[in-house]
Amino acid sequence: MRLRDKVAIVTGAGSGNGAAIAKGFLAAGAKVVFADINVSAAEQEAIQSEYGKDAWIAVEVDVANQSSVEELIRETLKAFSKIDVMVANAGITIRKPFLELSEADYDRVMDVNAKGVFFCSQEAARIMVEQGGGSIIHMSSTTSVLAEGNAVQYGASKGAVAAMTRHMALDLGEQNVRVNAIAPGTIQTKLTGSRLQAEGVVAREAELTMLKRIGQPDDLIGAALFLASDESSFITGTQIFVDGGYSVK
């Protein structure tokens, strides 16, 4: 089992990509913290995995609040004594035309998507450095490098994530803490659901990929497992695009 004896935190594990990755980690042998602002949803996802309570806990966290993230770390250490993997996945979007965006819209997206990644990474890294190493995985996006309509603040937040990935990897490399990112294309989740319901959107976005389909949350599990495991021990500071070839077409 690829993650046997490892302890992983996955934020945003109450639905979508985070839930899929967290359950994939359980199947690979890890002890997993399902962390989400909606702790009931996180617990339900963990229960659906059919793994016993000795393999997981569900913890409420607001990633945009440093004290809340610190509590997440404490709860993880209390339950499992260490942290080997942090998946900073929690994210939101507010889709509006650029000229209609408010300061509150911008701040909310940046607080969760960028500041949240900073807090989760920093707090996990403190423990990993003491332990002698670990793997931090950020959830970036193709919007970190490619433009998309009505997504200025989302793209800005994911561009920040991509940049932080490189800089954190440099600062933490000598402490054997690796920092990488996964950059999904269009994935069918609650976050994208309303946009994909519009007539013709799924077909149009599928056509933009080389594989002629949009992604599903389970499509991210392989990349996350690879980056979390020792198989990627010489990989840091990079983004893996999981987008059906969209970003290079």
TrEMBL record:
User: What is the top-level taxon of the source organism?
Assistant: Bacteria
Enzyme class (EC, first level)? oxidoreductase
> What's in the keyword line of the UniProt record?
Oxidoreductase
Q: Say if the entry is tagged with keyword Nucleus.
A: no
So where does this one cross the membrane? none
> Which Gene3D superfamilies does this chain map to?
NAD(P)-binding Rossmann-like Domain
Protein's recorded name: SDR family NAD(P)-dependent oxidoreductase
